[in-house]
Amino acid sequence: MAGMRETYICVDIETAGPVPGDYSLLSIGACTLTDPPAKFYIELKPVNDKQTPEAARVHRLSMVQLEAEGSEPKEALLQFEAWLASQVPPDRKPTFVAFNAPFDWMFINYYFIHFLGHNPFGHTALDIKALYMGLARVTWSQTSWRFIDPKFTEQENLSHHALQDALDQAQLFKKLLDDLAQEKPPYTEKKLDDNQ
Q1: CATH code for the domain of 99
Q2: Which residue segment(s) compose the domain that 111 sits in?
Q3: Is residue 186 part of a domain?
Q4: Are 46 and 66 in contact (CB under 8 A)?
Q5: Taking the model in full, what pTM does it have?
Q6: pLDDT digit string (tens) for 37-59?
Q7: How far does Cα 43 stand from its chain's mean position?
Q8: In a domain, 131, yes or no
Q9: Residues identified as active-site
Q10: 90-126, pLDDT tens digit by residue?
Q11: Please, what is the angle between helix 128-136 and helix 101-116, to 10°?
């Protein structure tokens, strides 16, 4: 990764539901790829009391506690923006990286634009799942954590704490970048059964 022009920032979030605007962004975790990584974590006050049962089972955060103790969304975004500025050289923009980036990206982009009027990440995001798909030459259905790293399953071993998940994703992303730099062949010649 020497000589990289990009400043990659791994981001993970927890939310109250599937779409911004209707549902709240509840927590943001982010980290750099440095060793040790610089870390950012904040919990946000919900914008309303809407929540899906599925989201509640995943994030395990208390909406009541967040309402009492969470940061106001605008303040949370200002803190995140300040942290990004402290990690990224002035001549660069941070590159947003996430595992299933479209989901995390839509909330982060919406909140930055809605509360601050701009997004310091610009208008792009890098998806770890898509990168793995290209490197491993597998189907999209074979890009879940359980295929990429046997110690993880989607429900059992991912913490669903935004910072810890961002750190786990950063480790995976660094491995993929190293493999890209070494021009390694595809990870597997065996095509896995989608039902495994």
Answers
A1: 3.30.420.10
A2: 7-181
A3: no
A4: yes
A5: 0.88
A6: 999 999 999 999 999 999 999 99
A7: 15
A8: yes
A9: 160
A10: 888 999 999 999 999 999 999 999 999 999 999 999 9
A11: 150
